[in-house]
Design a protein that fits this description.
It is a single chain. With 470 residues, the chain is α+β, with helices and mostly antiparallel strands. It folds into two domains: 269 residues, Methenyltetrahydromethanopterin Cyclohydrolase, Chain A, domain 1, CATH 3.10.340; 166 residues, Hypothetical protein af1432 (Orthogonal Bundle). It is 44% helix and 16% strand. It has 21 helices and twelve strands. A six-stranded mixed beta sheet has the order 1-2-8-7-6-5, sandwiched between helices. A six-stranded antiparallel beta sheet has the order 3-4-9-10-12-11. α13 packs antiparallel against α14. The longest helix is centred in the middle third of the chain and has 16 residues. The two termini are 42 Å apart. The N terminus is likely disordered.
């Protein structure tokens, strides 16, 4: 095959391969310290860490199920500083399929009060992520689906019925394998995503990941955290600071240079391998960003926001920051804060967040706590502290009538003042279940009217300059 072409992706039976591993887990449930139950509707649930201890062997099985049986995961010591640290080594000769069509946690499972991120081979059958699977041009028709859940609650019959409806399978033909982030097995399966993290970044940069021929990566295993949020920080640290990923890519030097231009955190080590075949060693310095983007999409889904809300408001906020000549380093933090602006709503009950009627005053008191929840959740994560200004302050108002701290004027961080206009602009110009979108003229008039009240007057003028220039 000549350089520059994309290999076709034939169906490789991901669900059948994963089902064999899941069956073996059930047969060795006691030895693996996993729990196996059947729901009333027939779905099988394999618990690797919610109500049971799980363990390292369960983690290996979970990681290989995540990759649809097309990846090998083994334990190996890694040199970290002056000592050795337990780690995983993972490799696959089908990275686009094993990592992006199966392992990537791209399916948000939100049913009633249940929420978990779904990964594993059932994704390639259900294909609810239409844009991604359209790019991959990969599809499977499976008789039995296997879905890996990263969550703290076991799926119910209601969840199984929802997943069955989305995938067109009977609930009795479904297997769920679940472990929390803060568990032994959960930490192992996330560390084994070291290859997938780099592939996801390539995909977001517009590179055709089907041209990645093979991959091998290593990452340390995180110690089990006290809660899942801290667990996310630890697993990301392990991949970001301790992980390595090596990819064999079919592309020319010019194509690789164009694909990764401007990404200072991605180092490409080119060594010609046969005709146009390249060996690339990619630093995973942007691993956090892939996780943040996943959180952002999940938050949009839970809050029933218009699809793409967080992405759009982030783009506008970044444009405003660039117009102010804010440094690129600071813009990086602004972008992360904008994507996570409503992460505090994780702490708001569904009965309030999804209430179709007007909130009571008591409910508003609870709702207005979400910026404080965001601060409490993100401040322990050193990497995200510089991004806190927007999640913590985006509901403050220029005239001091906002919340949670009733900051006034320039007491409000500039990034939060920029974001406030972007957020209101997108909310007004997007359709909502309870109203149609405003016209741009109506929204602009409202923003102008709120100058000096809700918004910083100088930022209002900047916003109009940016909008008129696009």
């Amino acid at each position: 095959m000549t350089a520059g072409t994309s290999p076709g992706l034939e169906a490789l039976g991901l669900n059948e391969r994963a089902l064999e591993i899941a069956d073996a887990m059930e047969e060795s449930a006691a030895a693996l310290r996993v729990g196996v139950t059947r729901l009333a509707g027939g779905a099988r649930v394999i618990d690797a860490g919610v109500q049971v201890n799980g363990g390292f062997d369960a983690g290996l099985a979970l990681a290989e199920i995540c990759m649809g049986g097309l990846g090998t995961v083994v334990y190996s010591p890694l040199q970290i500083g002056d000592g050795a640290w337990p780690g995983v080594t993972v490799w696959t000769d089908h990275p686009a399929v094993a990592c992006m069509a199966s392992q990537y946690a791209g399916w948000a499972i939100s049913v009633g009060s249940f929420f978990a991120m779904g990964s594993g081979p059932l994704r390639s059958h259900a294909r609810v992520e239409k844009e991604l699977f359209g790019k991959l041009e990969y599809a499977e028709e499976a008789g039995h689906g296997v879905l890996v859940l990263e969550g703290r609650s076991l799926p119910t019959d209601e969840v199984a019925a929802w997943v069955a409806a989305k995938s067109g399978l009977d609930p009795a033909r479904l297997t769920f394998v679940i472990a929390p982030t803060a568990s032994i097995a959960g930490g192992v399966q996330i560390a084994a995503r070291v290859l997938e993290t780099g592939l996801h970044k390539m995909e977001t940069l517009g590179f055709d990941v089907r041209r990645v021929v093979s991959g091998m990566g290593m990452a340390p295993i995180p110690p089990v955290a006290k809660n899942d949020l801290r667990g996310i920080g630890r697993t990301n640290d392990c991949i970001l600071y301790g992980g390595q990923a090596h990819y064999t890519i079919r592309a020319s030097d010019q194509e690789l240079a164009e694909a990764f231009a401007g990404q200072a955190a991605i180092a490409i080590d080119n060594a010609t391998l046969l005709e146009g075949l390249q060996r690339s060693n990619l630093d995973l310095g942007l691993a956090y960003d892939a996780t943040i983007e996943g959180w952002s999409r999940a938050l949009d889904l839970r809050d029933k926001e218009t699809e793409g809300h967080s992405r759009r408001v982030t783009e506008v906020t970044v444009k405003l920051a660039q117009a102010l000549d804010i440094s690129e380093d600071e813009i990086t933090h602004i972008r992360r804060g904008a994507l996570l602006h409503d992460i505090g709503k994780i702490g708001i009950p569904d009965s309030i967040l999804h209430k179709p009627d007007t909130l009571t005053e008591e409910e508003w008191v609870t709702m207005r706590r979400h910026p404080q929840f965001a601060y409490d959740m993100l401040s322990p994560i050193e990497y995200l502290r510089p991004a806190l200004a927007i999640p913590y302050n985006h509901h403050e108002k220029w005239d001091g009538t906002g919340y949670p701290r009733r900051l006034k004027g320039e007491e409000i961080p500039m990034s939060a003042r920029l974001f406030a206009i972007a957020d209101v602009w997108d909310a007004l110009t997007s359709n909502r279940p309870y109203r149609d979108a405003w016209t741009e003229e109506q929204a602009l008039a409202y923003i102008r009217e709120q100058s000096g009240k809700h918004f910083d007057p100088q930022v209002v003028e900047l916003f109009f300059q940016v909008i008129e220039g696009t």
